[in-house]
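Appendix B, Record 12. Input sequence as logged:
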Amino acid sequence: MRSRSVIVTIAALTVCGCASIVDSITSDLTQAVLNQPDPEIVRDGAPAYLIMADTLIQRSPDSVRGLTAGATLYTAYAAIFVDDIDRRRTIADRAWDYGRRAMCAEDDDYCGADTIDYKAFHSLVQYIKDDDMAVATAYAISWLSWIEAHSEDWVAVAYLPRPESVLERLLEVDETYDHGALHLYMGQLKTLRPAALGGEPEVGRAHFERAIELSGGRNLMALVAYARSYGRLVYDRELHDRLLQQVLDSDPVSPGYTLTNVIAQRQARELLASADDYF
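Logged structural output:
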């Protein structure tokens, strides 16, 4: 399953969701993390936020905000910083537990919703509204993280259409949310498989281009995902190399994007270095 690249990209975009846990302490922390040019500093500091998230959730086990932040942080940490598969599964399990508890706390119709049949689930997500954007996004990405971590289990993989349906509904509600990040997620999901195996690469391409447009070109991770997920899938070497070179030629320092842009440039170098072998 090629979903790890999807989760890593999502996590890179949402890693700073951990800062929302401590908004009451300092409103400047979110921007400080987003604008941090050294991912290792974020990596080294993340365990403290994991413990903080657990502590705050223990104190307020039905807090939608706390559970949402916990799901986001655990998803990001597992995907970006944990290579050991057993440890990643453990952390992804915690992320998904928080994600579904957050959605249940927001709307009790979602309590146990992952166990109902797909048709009923799809009907339920059509009621997601503007006020649900943050919690529903955390719900979807933590579920995707859990599926990826358990991708050897086809029962887990069979759940993939459910978080995808949540993302589709979120796009209907507000496609501009988080500067087009929802389009980026969908672009990668649509390009998990070639067209011959049920994928929708051209639909994915449209999502990538819309994500880039909505971020004003500042989100370099969108360019990397476009190159990796679409360019490699359809064997378009020219597009692949052009997008990645654009990432490397760009200044990564951009308010709200510096951290993810630095990560994007690292990934771009790795993808270009392996391009000859791939193509």
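Residues 1-170 form a domain with the Serine Threonine Protein Phosphatase 5, Tetratricopeptide repeat fold (CATH 1.25.40.920).
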